[in-house]
Design goal:
alpha/beta; binds adenosine-5'-triphosphate; P-loop_NTPase; transport; 3-dehydroquinate dehydratase; nucleotide-binding; ATP-binding
Length: about 250
C-alpha cells in the first residue's frame, strides 16, 4: 500500500507539488495524469525513494520514504520517463550489473532475464551496446531492468513510450499478472486511451494539486463528459483554450 499525505516538493522558487494526498491499495493500478509540468514525475520520483519530499508523509509498503529511502528503492521497480542506462554496456552486461547490485541469485536472475528478454523480443540485441539501440529497445531494457528483482511496488513514468503494439500488449498483460500478485502500481501516461484501459483509479494533477480522483467512470460523471480526453481538458481548464487555438491556427493556415 502507498499512503501519501499532504506531500509538498519545492525546488528553489518552484512549488512542484502543493500538498497532495492519496492512497493506493495492493493489486491496484493508480494512474497519475496531468498536463506537462503538473508534478507527475516529481511525485513518482518521491514514491520511488529517489527524491526527498520537502514536507508531508509518504509511506510505501509500511516504509517512510523520509526515514529509509534505501529500503524503498529495494522494494520498488522504477521506470523513469527518460531512462538512465549505461551506453557502453550491452543489455546482457547491464542486467548482470543490476543483478549484482540487487543481490539477485544467479540462477533466479538468469531465469528472469531469459523470460523477460524473450517476452519483449530483444534476444538479438543482448550483445549490442545500449548506446546503439533504438528508442523502443532502450525502453524495453529499462522496463526489464526495473522488473528483475520482482519488486512489490512499480512506479512507471510514461513507461510504455516507444513500445510497439506487440510489446505494449505484452506489457499490459504483465501488469494484469502483477495486479493479481498484489503489487502496487503507479502509472503515468499522456495517452488517455491507455489510462482508460489500464488504471483502476486516476488522480488528475494540475499545477501541483490533485484536482479530481476516482475511477474513469467517476471522473466522467464528475466532469459530465463522455470521454477521458474531454474530462482531462475540461478539468485542466484547457477545453476552451484548445478550441480558440485551433480556430486561430485554421485562420492562420
Ligand atoms: N530538479 C528540478 N529542479 C527544479 N525544478 C524542477 C525539478 N524537477 C521538476 N521541476 C519543476 O517541477 C515542476 C513539475 O515537473 P514534473 O517533471 O514533475 O512535471 P510532469 O507532470 O512530470 O511533466 P511532464 O508531463 O512534462 O513530464 C515543473 O515546473 C518542473 O520544471
Amino acid at each position: 500500500m502507498i499512503i501519501v499525505e499532504n506531500l509538498r516538493k519545492v525546488f528553489g522558487s518552484t512549488e512542484a507539488v502543493k500538498g497532495i494526498s492519496f492512497r493506493i491499495d495492493n493489486g491496484e493500478i493508480y494512474g497519475l495524469l496531468g498536463p506537462n509540468g503538473s508534478g507527475k514525475s516529481t511525485t513518482m520520483r518521491i514514491l520511488a525513494g529517489i527524491t526527498a519530499p520537502t514536507s508531508g508523509k509518504v509511506i510505501v509498503e509500511g516504509i517512510d520514504v523520509s526515514k529509509d529511502q534505501l529500503r524503498v528503492k529495494e522494494i520498488t521497480g522504477y521506470v523513469p520517463e527518460t531512462p538512465a542506462l549505461y551506453e557502453s554496456l550491452t543489455p546482457s552486461e547491464f542486467f548482470s550489473f543490476i543483478g549484482s547490485i540487487r543481490r539477485i541469485p544467479q540462477d533466479v536472475l538468469e531465469e528472469r532475464v531469459d523470460k523477460l528478454v524473450k517476452a519483449f523480443g530483444i534476444e538479438e540485441y543482448m550483445n549490442h551496446l545500449i548506446g546503439t539501440l533504438s528508442f523502443g529497445t532502450r525502453q524495453k531494457v529499462s522496463l526489464i531492468s526495473a522488473l528483475l528483482h520482482d519488486p512489490k511496488v512499480l512506479i512507471l513514468d510514461e513507461a510504455m513510450n516507444g513500445l510497439d503494439p506487440k510489446s505494449g500488449r505484452i506489457f499490459r498483460e504483465l501488469l494484469m499478472e502483477f495486479k493479481k500478485e498484489g503489487k502496487v502500481i503507479v502509472f503515468s501516461t499522456h495517452i488517455l486511451a491507455l489510462a482508460e484501459i489500464i488504471c483502476d483509479r486516476i488522480g488528475l494533477l494540475y499545477q501541483g494539486r490533485i484536482i479530481a480522483e476516482g475511477t474513469v467512470d467517476d471522473l466522467k460523471k464528475l466532469a459530465e463528459e463522455e470521454s477521458l480526453e474531454d474530462v482531462f481538458l475540461k478539468l485542466t481548464q484547457a477545453k476552451e483554450e484548445v478550441s480558440l487555438l485551433v480556430s486561430a491556427l485554421k485562420e492562420a493556415l
